[in-house]
Structure formats: C-alpha cells, structure tokens
Automatic annotation (TrEMBL):
Death domain residues: 192-264
Signal peptide start and end residues: none
Protein name: Uncharacterized protein LOC113206925 isoform X2
Region of interest called Disordered, as start-end residue ranges on this chain: 100-156
CDD domains in alphabetical order: Death
Gene Ontology BP term (one): signal transduction
Gene: LOC113206925
Gene3D superfamilies in the cross-refs: Death Domain, Fas (1.10.533.10)
Ranges annotated as biased composition (Basic and acidic residues): 113-129, 143-156
Amino acid sequence: MKKMLTAIPREILNDLQYNLIDVKLHQRNVLNRSDFILLNSYSKNEEKVEMLMELMRNKSEEDHENFLEIMEEDYDWIRDKCEIFFQKIRLDALQKKTNSCPVNALPENPESVEVKKQTETTEESDRSVHTSSSPDSCALPPRAEKENIPSDVKKTEETVSANCEIINKKLDQTITNEMMTKVRRNHRVVKRWSTLAHSLGMTPVVHILRQRMVTNGEDVDACVLHLLEEWKGAHPKKATLGRLVTVLREDGFNDVADELEGTYAA
C-alpha cells in the first residue's frame, strides 16, 4: 500500500488497533458508513490505521475531539501524538485558505506559549521527583573522612545502610499473586489498564486480553491480573516489586504504588 501519511508517528501505526475502536468511531459518527466499508476492505491493521488517519484529514474539529476522547479511554499514551497530528492538519488547511506565510513562520499563540512553559516546568519538576524518590535505589549521602565522623554518626550510617540493603532486596523480589491482586483491586488501574500494559512493554497483549475477557465473560479487573501474569511470564527477571512500583508511579498510580511499597518493602 502506498504510504500517504508520512507525518504520522510510527508509534500510532504500531500501537493503535483499529478493530478495537472501529465500533466507537462509528457510534460517535466520526466514521460514516462509506468510511467503515472502506477501512474494513483492508486486511492489515497498519493499512487500516493509515487510511483512518488519512480520512481524519477531512473530518471536522468536532470529529477530531471525539476521536481524541476515544484515544484517551483506550490509548492515552498516543493521544497527544494524534492531537498534534490534527493540529497540523488544521494549520495546513488554514494556510491554504488564507494563502499566508508558511506554518513555521506563524507567530505562536500567547496562550500556547504559556501552556508550553507550564508543561516544561511540570515535566522538569516530575523528573526531579522521580530522580530523588525512585524506589529502585537507596543511596547514602557522600561519606566524610573517617577520622572526622563521630562514633554515633557512624552507627547511624551503618544502620541506614543496612536498612537500605534490606529494602533493596525486598524491591528485587519477583511479584507475587498477592501483589497482583492489590493492583487488580485499584479502580484507577482497572480503568486505565491498557496504559499500564504499554508502560510494561506489553502492548501487543492488550487485544488478546480483551478478547479473553469477552470470551470468558470476565470483569475488566481480570485484565489487570492477566496482564501482570503475562508480564511475569514473559520477563521473569524484570517482573520485580521495584519495577512494578516505579511503573505505577510513572503512570500516576501513586496510591497503589505506596500500598505495595508500604506492605512489601517497608
């Protein structure tokens, strides 16, 4: 198939499963009957996704918003990439209508500049927090010269060092069924379990687990349990408590991350 959308990030073509969102797109009138028939005429998922994004070029801003809402429900890690793509589409359309200067010469919207600054500040703050509070490491401050360290300080350092070693060993333990159950019971994780799957490097199993849930008549929380079991089976050395806690924090599931750390690594 001839590639038409060179601007589409590869992540969208790789991660987005058209068959998981086609019904929602049709229900929200983002796709009409002709679009639906056209897209289903392709056999490969990447071809369907590529054609879908090509069709979105001619859709309204309201359709774009509905599309992004669907992405936020099931594919929030690529939602922003889709939003940027739609913004470029609208800028291109505006440029053609006004026959004005090139897109890269357009002045930035003051509100966009302010949002960008706030985002950069937030990201920098988040990086600082993650760097300083990562559960995968437990480091001591630089030691002073031995001859200048009082005996009580030495004992304190030795105690802290011993505690850190114990904590690190606990964080290195392989996740257990009990830990998986705690994650499964968190309603926020259940709602966004596909995001957790992506962060764990298990995106390819999302479609399989959804099909299993429907076939077996299971609740959505079962997908969380099956996901963690699949992760443990595929990456037994990486499937540790420390890694799970880190990923949960990165995805914003701090409540269950704190619970796991407090219960099994304290």
